[in-house]
Amino acid sequence: MLFNSYEFILIFLPITLLGYFFLHEFKAAKSAVGFLVVSSLAFYSYWDIKMLPLLLSSIIFNYSMGRVIEKKACKKYLVIGISVNLLLLILFKYLAFIANTVNAFAGTTLPVPEITLPLGISFYTFTQTAYLIDVYRRETTHYSLMKYSLFVTIFPHLIAGPILYHKKMLPQFSDVSKYLFSSKNFALGVSIFSIGLFKKVIIADTLAPWVKVIFDNADKVTFIEAWMGALGYTLQLYFDFSGYSEMAVGLGWMLNFSLPINFRSPYKATSIVDFWRRWHITLSEFLKNYLYISLGGNRKGESRRIINLLITMLLGGLWHGAGWTFVIWGGLHGIYLTINHLWRKTNLAIYPVISWGITFLSVVFAWTFFRANSVGDAFQMIFAMSGMKGVVLPTSLHSKVAFLEQFGVGFEKLYYIPDGFFQIGTILAIFILTICFKEPDLANDFKPNLKWALITSVIFVMSFISLSKASEFLYFQF
Q1: Exposure string (b/e) for 149-163, b if CB count within 10 Å is 16 or more?
Q2: DSSP bridge partners of 412
Q3: By C-alpha distance, which of 252, 225, 199 is closest to 418?
Q4: Is the CB of residue 194 less than 8 Å from the CB of residue 250?
């Protein structure tokens, strides 16, 4: 079930909200928790009920292992718990990738299993792995299986994040006031949900078709087409995933729960370090707190720090998908972060606008690998973007910049960009980038008033009438 679907907005969400708050009116907070767990499991089962036993088994195993670690305080149980979670990911997400890689490099003919990737497995596995580590670190308080199940399955985050941490979520489930309807929280939730829905349906889904055409023809696109595709995907991915994350946060507020913010205008970052403090924040926290620091962080010298950074980002890339394009993307960001840290040691300053431009172009370059259908396609896009295939501009610009022909610039029809979209796309990109840089912090600045009511109504209606063909979120495949 998609957040951006009629079934969710008109059926599932109203029933869930009414049942949740109705039970509280009868002083049945425990029943409200149970109802929300059942609703979340129903939400998950709508996709494929055959995957429900796997999710339930994962919850029971990790909860039980957490209790054992809590009592025994023995590292071997932590290792067992993490190993089972990783084995689950390897089996369902990476087994085919491993077999294909071995066959390609060793010339073997290992059978390649056809396994359906369980929806949300990366998110609920990381959420529970972090929980086990925190139990071992004595940073947890004991909670019931029901509340733990809600922590893992609460439907706003279950499919594509954000990654939740028990310290921020589980205490909320013990707060009785959370089960009492709040008109202010509900209004805030509806506003944030509507903004996220607008980002997904009106912006991301509008960019998606022509981005797909360009990347599907990576070996044929010209200089301008390649750049339009790369920049288009840079914006599509941001508005798709930040749209989902904001819809999740909005749904959380409707239920009186505060889910973590996942984005803080990442495209205005002036360094890669700054970018990762703004992009997919909950994943960044996981990689730093549970992987980078566990590897030793920066405590064992500069060389070890660089190695730890590269390992962390390579595994972070692999977490996104079982493919070499994701590994390369992660490796690039590992290299970027290494350069960033080494540059800081020189104490040399760069003008903010220049550092922003370098950061943004580096991010766009890496996204090309992230989106490409194969490593070969990614390099074809890079070759085109760098001008190695020649620089070709649309014929509509010939009369204005014909003098560029003497420098080897060609003019021809752009086959993979809709007619007139060069001019429209430029305006659209400027408008969208402006939104990226001026996003409001609704969680802290929101005040219910007529202005917000009108804004929310307009963007919700615009988005709702555009739901004729619901599309999946990009992070569903990760």
Answers
A1: bbbbbbbbbbbbbbb
A2: 394
A3: 225
A4: yes
* Paired strand residues for 394: 412
DSSP 351-399: -HHHHHHHHHHHHHHHHHHHHSSSHHHHHHHHHHHTTTT--EEEGGGHH
- What mean pLDDT comes out for the span 296-318? 88
Which residues are marked as active site? 320
Question: What whole-number distance in Å separates Cα of residue 447 and Cα of residue 55?
Answer: 39
Q: Is 242 left (phi over 0), alpha (psi -120 to 50) or beta?
A: alpha
DSSP code of 264?
A: S
Count CB-CB contacts under 10 A for residue 72.
12
Q: Which two tokens stand for residue 230?
A: 């790369």
User: And the tokens for 318?
Assistant: 């692999």
DSSP 124-186: HHHHHHHHHHHHHTT------HHHHHHHHH-HHHHTT-PPP-HHHHHHHHT-GGGGS--HHHH
The top-scoring range by mean pLDDT among 365-369, 385-389, 462-466 is 365-369
**Which residue's structure tokens are 């910049």?**
401
pTM over 0.70: yes
Rounded distance between C-alpha atoms, residue 419 and residue 421, angstroms:
5
String of DSSP letters for 15-46: HHHHHHHHHHHTT-HHHHHHHHHHHHHHHHHT
Query: H/E element holding 410?
Result: strand 410-412
241: closest CA among 210, 273, 209, 278?
278
Q: Give the pair of three-digit tokens for residue 314.
A: 């390579």
| pLDDT range class, residue 466, cuts 50, 70, 90 | confident
First to last CA, the chain: 17
Yes or no: say if 232 and 207 are a contact pair by the CB < 8 Å rule. yes
* C-alpha to C-alpha distance for 287 and 111, rounded to whole angstroms: 32
Closest CA to 132 of 37, 67, 206, 212: 67
Helix 375-385 to helix 352-371 angle (10° resolution) is 140
Greatest alpha-carbon pair distance for the chain in Å reads: 80
Give the tens place of pLDDT for each residue, 422-436: 666 666 676 677 667
| Three-state secondary-structure class, residue 449 | coil
